[in-house]
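fyi for ur records
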Amino acid sequence: MDLPPRSPSGIRHNGVPPAGSGKRFTLPQPPDAAQTGTGDGEAPFSDRLVSDTKSIIELLHWALTAYLRHPKPLLVLAAFLIFPASLLESCLVAGITGGTADQVRIADTTTVDFTKRRAELATRIQASQARGQIDKQAAAELAALTAVEATPPPTTDVVLHRGASWLREKLANLIQGLLLFGLAFPIAYGALSIATIDRLGGASLPSFGDIWPILVARSELFLVSLIPAALLVAVGNALFILPGLVLSVLFLFVPQVVLFEKRSGRAALLRSIDLVKSDAIRVVLAFLSFALTGFAAATLTELFIPPGGDRAVVFVHFVIGDLLAVAVLPIPAMVLARLYLDLRARKGLTPEQLSRAARS
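which gave:
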């Protein structure tokens, strides 16, 4: 069969990069009614949980192996999308939260030393006693100084500083949630999904120059889809955390929906919810594995570079944490791409068709 003509850059006119030598990866299929033994065509929940757990473990192993085989293009693609947002986020957060601990410490430890004055008064009292008299004025002043030193310092200033610190922390979390986790990371997930699907279709891994025009063409769709999703997740996190986690899971496929289906806004959010519901167990298990990875990266950052201190320390803390996140980002992105491809493949779509859809 004749192949479509190539352009001077090596890309065929259908928009798909030239074919590589990658092996096709068999996609898991929905359970078959004949194999489950149930009359309604659906396996028992326990069987599906075991099967989906094994599937996610296999996907994580595959993603890790594929990433280690070709780390440079995937890491460069993630870094180009995450690092600029990370620098901006780190600067903003450092400007907001830096120096807060010093202010609290100064407010807590500001005291006046009366040691010298008390020694002078004690000397006057001893001298008066030697003359057979008591210096009443010196005795009264010494008693007053002793009472003042025994009284704890006022805490009004400390409370004000701690209140301001709490507000700064909440504002920093909001900036991080919107800028990094609300925009940069989902866009990076989408870009790495294109690379993963290209590779699964037998094409070579695209470069950042191949992906960037696609992201620019979808920029408006990303903004009207990701910002509402990020705001809803932020509100959910403020409501005892659990609603935010649920919304985070439901909106996992928003970047893929924007890139491959050209949906935006409310339609993109609802489409992501439908996709998650159609494979809920595997999506939730994948999300939990991503959360554990992120928690491990955050813990390492806290151990080596605590966030307290001046603005420079806060800046370095957030940059190092984001770099660790970028280092592992291709693994969850590839797993999400595989899950999305599986759901679309059940409707008959192939990786080649999705690659063309992203570039149309």
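Residues 111-150 form one domain. thats all i got for now
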